[in-house]
Amino acid sequence: MSFKLVLLVACAVIASTGAASVKPNYITEEEFEFARRHPIQALKNETLKLPPFEQSNIKHPRPGFGPRLWTNAQVPYTLDGTFDDNQRVQVAAALNAYHEATCIRFVQKENHHTSWVDIQHDPTVCGVAHVCMNSGAQFAKFGGSCVSAGTMVHELGHTLCMGHEQTRLDRDKWISFNTAICEPHGMDGSDFNRGLNKLYDYVSIEHYEGECYNGCFVPKVPGVTKCGSGGPLAVLDVEILNEMYGCNSGCQGYRYVNKNNGPNNLVQAGTELGGAPLYSCRAYHQGDIVPGKYSTQSGECHVAHNGGEYGKSEDIEVLTNPNGANFQWVQSGSLPSNAVKGGRTNERETLYVIQCLLEINGQSAWTPGKFQPSTGAYSSYGGQEIPCAGNNVKFLTCNN
């Protein structure tokens, strides 16, 4: 069913209740339930509409993270009563995107709340929001064709203290600007730094899209084909938010950690043919962030891609489990619903963490690899990408 048809159905349901004339200043449980059944899908043949860069957020004068993160991951909000029923569906989908993937909750503002966000309908803007938590009221405004779930997810990310990906302190390592087409975007100051040393993510919801396609941004990683997520939270966006807000319970508690940060609680994902332990890692190759196998002895992450095996020694992240997420390896011929996401392709397709049974020269071992829904399961050995045969695949799954 197309999203436009979904909106029409939603409006028909609302209209049939006779309640559309008086709209509450919050999203109802019925609206959230509809959003859970119809999560945001990435745009495929169009670019997510975002405001001009210089108009997209309003920084607060107080620097740094610390108290600027929302207390207890609770974001009190009010909702403008002038949003129509179609637009309320979009708001519900945007808020639900955060509820489903993180411990962050947008909650109805009550009298005791001293900081809150007013989600406003303003036809004079595309989208604009204050960055991080402030004292008192702040706003996130949306208007015109920007009243869409994807645009709202982007702007509410700023509300939650996420900056633009292309303004990160380390962005010059990952992109350059074609000054014949555009002026370089500003760069965050040292007081606005995630401090998490995460991989740069070209398909983050906070990365501008159109500038990649018109030649303004010039990616420095080979193989990058898309920028921005197209609407939903990207795999790495979810991980960053869960780490920022201390979402440590259940399946929100695992972490990918840069190998140079001395990661602990590594997740063993198999062994070498000779029995040495291997761990799950990920690294860039040809625009993909590829789950692979990490050896503490070599300090390298080996990833499989397009028939080959590639060793990476820099910009490696290792999967860790510091909070005791309930991981289980499940042997299956199909993708489990609770499989752990480990990366993505340059076309935004999610990649999953697996073990693959390799049998080479009379020896066998379960070794780490990747699962790509459109092509299958792979590990690597001896410079080659090895397809996983038949049912010889174990998915890393997580149970809350």
Show the helix and strand layout.
Blueprint: H1 3-17, H2 29-37, E1 57-58, E2 74-79, H3 85-101, E3 105-108, E4 115-121, E5 127-130, E6 136-142, H4 149-159, E7 175-177, H5 210-213, E8 217-219, H6 235-244, E9 255-258, E10 268-271, E11 277-285, E12 288-295, E13 300-305, E14 308-312, E15 317-320, E16 327-331, E17 341-344, E18 350-360, E19 363-372, E20 376-381, E21 384-387, E22 393-398
Parallel strand pairs: 1-5, 2-3, 2-4, 4-6
Antiparallel strand pairs: 5-6, 7-8, 9-15, 10-11, 11-12, 11-15, 12-13, 13-14, 16-22, 17-18, 18-19, 18-22, 19-20, 20-21
Helix pairs in contact: 2-3, 3-4
A few lines on this structure:
The chain is α+β, with helices and mostly antiparallel strands and 400 residues long. The protein has helices at 3-17, 29-37, 85-101, 149-159, 210-213, 235-244, and strands at 57-58, 74-79, 105-108, 115-121, 127-130, 136-142, 175-177, 217-219, 255-258, 268-271, 277-285, 288-295, 300-305, 308-312, 317-320, 327-331, 341-344, 350-360, 363-372, 376-381, 384-387, 393-398. Helix 3 crosses helix 4.
Task: Describe this structure as you would to a colleague.
With 400 residues, the protein is of the alpha+beta class. The protein folds into two domains: 3-159, 3-Layer(aba) Sandwich (Collagenase (Catalytic Domain)), CATH 3.40.390; 251-398, no CATH class. The chain is built from six helices and 22 strands. Strands 9, 10, 11, 12, 13, 14 and 15 form a seven-stranded antiparallel β-sheet that branches. Strands 16, 17, 18, 19, 20, 21 and 22 form a seven-stranded antiparallel β-sheet that branches. A six-stranded mixed β-sheet has the order 1-5-6-4-2-3, with helices on one face. The longest helix is centred in the first third of the chain and has 17 residues, at 85-101. The radius of gyration is 22 Å and the shape is globular.
